[in-house]
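Project standup — Tuesday

K.O.: blocked on the structure for the chain from last sprint. Re-posting the sequence here as requested.
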Amino acid sequence: MSEADDLFKKALELHSSDKAEAKRHFTLAADAGHGQAAFVLAKLAINDRNYDDARRWGLKAASLGDAEATEMFNAADGPDAATVKDSEFTRAVSFYEEDKLEEAERSWLRASAAGNYAAMANLANRLRRRGRPNAASQWDYLAAKGGIVSAMVNFAAFAEDDDSPKEAEFWYRQAAERGADDGMHNLALLKMKQGDASEAEFWYRKAVDAGNTSSMCNLGSLLEQRGEDDAARAMFQRAVDAGYARGGFYLGRQADRLGKQDDAKKWLVHAAEAGDAESMLVLAKRAFYAREFEDARFWGLRAKEAGSQEAAELFVQIP
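H.V.: unblocked you, prediction finished:
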């Protein structure tokens, strides 16, 4: 094993306990010709938002034969990070508009490595669609730190799925306070999970004011649970009026509970015809219990085709 390899191994051993000493060993290894050590330094510089150092170490890693560094820093358009982050982002947008997704991803990667926060968010979206949530979350985190609100929401969702509710709440709140209605809505959902209905209602109302139709339905359900049927109905209707057919499901459910069967069917059909699988399933069940088997089969199969697992189980034997 070479001296550079020994230094790199020592740096890895130190990284969890003494990051400063680990960085010193990575630097010694890189200076001794270790390409992977140089690439680690490039990634550490990106995390510190020191993009000139990132590019310097990235280019050194590429010159030493590190394939990943070559992919990330192989941009010859400009001599510095500031030039690369703009030129590669522009190129990525052009590639994306031409449906050249692999080329777009490579250019977003290079622009991200040079410090373009919008590129980081776009790269994260692309990686997420390709089934790489962990890699996406790293770029979302950096983009969120750089002020990209959509990345704040995406990283918060990742953190929530990763059972890190405090981190999720922090980033949802950051997005919500910057006016993102999906941040408000998701923060409200999280507060409901935590049993804080009062703060959840606050954020649902803020999201409703911002036009979030899912929050209209969730706030309506919260009001309904408190026995405020008229206020709930108005909120569900507001969602429908805003073009959110799912509101019809909630209107139908409420009408059914109140014994208004004609209204219930009208709203469930409204939502089902707009593609709401749960409304289709409810209509199938209602028809079945009413011994209207053709209607039951019609809505049941539509619910199955729309992705309802329960419908798929109920109608498994129907071709």
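K.O.: great, moving the ticket to review. The chain is about 80% helix and 0% strand. The domain at 1-74 is CATH 1.25.40.10 (Serine Threonine Protein Phosphatase 5, Tetratricopeptide repeat).
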